[in-house]
Amino acid sequence: MRFVWAVAAFVLATVMIGAGIAQRTIFQGPKTETTAISVEEKTPYLLIDGAVLNQMPGTQTLRAQAEGDIFASYGRTADMEAWLSDSTYTHVTLDDEGGLETAVVEPEVDATVDPTAEAPAEDAAADDAAADDTTSGDATAETAGRSPVGSDLWLDEYQQTDLLIAPLQLPESMSVLVAADGTAPAPSRVTVSWPLQTSTPWAGPLIVGGGILMAVGVFLYILGIRHARRKRGPRRKGLPLPVTEPIDIAIDHDDKGVISSAKPTRRAVSSGGRRAFAVLPVVAVSALLFSGCSADAWPQLGSSPTPSPTATVIAPDGQQAPAVTKAQAERILTRIAATVADADAAMDGDLADTRLEGAALAARDTNYKLRAALGDYPAPAPILAKPLEIILPQAYDGWPRSVIAVADDDESKTSSIMVLTQQDQWADYKLSYVGSLEASTSLPDLAPAYIGAPQVEPDSPFLLLPPDEIAAAYADIITNGESSQYYDLFEADGDQLRASIAADRQRRLEEFNKTASSTGNLEFSSAAGVQAPFALQTVESGAIVAVNINEIDTVKPTNADAVIKVNDNRTVKTLAGVDQSQTGFATTFSDQVFFYVPGPGSNEKIRLLGYSSDILDAKIL
């Protein structure tokens, strides 16, 4: 009976294991779903809409094949369409029935130009002559492509031969741009793949259960053999036999011929056959157990974990998308820092102009001029890029668009606050304001990077002071101190800029009066700089405002026969081009200053966040 149960266990185990393995192999089906995008039109760009990428659930895998390097990037669909607005490209979307639809999109035509207007009669001959050059003109237009590589507009980009991007997890609001170099036709062999849900929750239990049942069958089989051997003994009792002594068959002869008996030894009896018989099923069962141990081969009996609630910030209705993501801002700022570092090393103002503008560029230009003339003049502080601690992008779909960023320097234990601006969809971001944060500065509450903040208009009445009045008001405080009408609006405690300016002016005035008080006069003044202010809203209806302030030191002679000499001041001498003047000198310092400006109903004052100060110019009066 034990043999019957053993055979039944073997059969049932074989069925269970076979069914489990079949679920993981022949019955499992394909693991991915692939859609091929075939493009017949030859255009330099291929834009794959987010709806195409999300026609199946799960992560996406994009593959493009062509000769040479292939470029691909992704970003918000509206941004990509804006970047392609002056180019011819192929747009891949879904039709109403869910099928792929490709269309060639032509560049937008300027509405101010009437293409149907007739040319004047005197231009007819010129038009006829130009007709002969149509072919060459078209060829020139086709070759005048724009490379998509390195654009600050992309959230991420890739460039390789036989392009493969996996995994992607883009929402429908984003699209993928595929191209060669912006001039050659885009790859025509593109596929998008998605993983299919191929879990086999009963494969694991069937394989493991079959393995256990096979082990039970082996055990029953061994018991059956043992029971059968015990039944083979004699059934009749024989006559009693005399007791016999064991015979020693091992005889040893020594050198004298004496025979001595040795102790009997036992021969090791090999049981390899039985052990092999018992080990093979165990190995087989172990192999089968391991074959079904992946997570998707088991039923998920537990409930899904419930995420703990966290505080969230909800974007106001109608607010537009943030200008950049944090990863995008890190990449942009890294590019800016690298380019400016190269410009600083070469003292190349044209190179600096590709990544700087406004007050930041003006300060660099002056530094390069001084360093070219004065070999020991210090280089400007480098642009900090990593780690990027805070990012507040402008929530705006159009252009120009900006972002405020704060980066730390782990070595010097300092932080920089910066304003980056992109003038249009084809331009690179440029740094327009940069300043060092005060050591004890606490920034106001800011919206998260994935929401962004709207820009505050320069003349906005919804702040303690409009942004376009901040620079003039603070300059008035620097000049007039507590007698300024704006003194009570600004927080004096912790304002290191105001304190350092006052101390420096007092020192220089005392030095000037020691030698030149009888022949000259030194005056200090401050005024708003030429750079426009920039402001982004904070959570509590305040704003971070960046402004430009100029400090002007004026030296004039008080005696008609006196001459102002600047032999000891190499900086002024270099910038002014002379070392003395009968009319005097004016030296201008440019301050890039960041403030927190509260709303009109707040009990807080306008608070200094950070600043930088550089010499800007010196000239003869």
From TrEMBL:
Residues 321-619 form the DUF8094 domain. InterPro entries: DUF8094. Residues 120-131 have a biased composition (Acidic residues). Residues 132-145 have a biased composition (Low complexity). The chain crosses the membrane at residues 202-223, 276-298. It comes from the Bacteria. Keywords: Membrane, Transmembrane, Transmembrane helix. It holds the Pfam family DUF8094. Residues 119-149 are annotated as: Disordered. This is DUF8094 domain-containing protein.
